[in-house]
Amino acid sequence: MSDLTAVRPAIPVREAVIAGFLVALALFILYAVFLDQGALLSPWLGEAAGNSNYLHEFTHDGRHLFAAQCH
Question: pTM score, two decimals?
Answer without folding.
Answer: 0.58
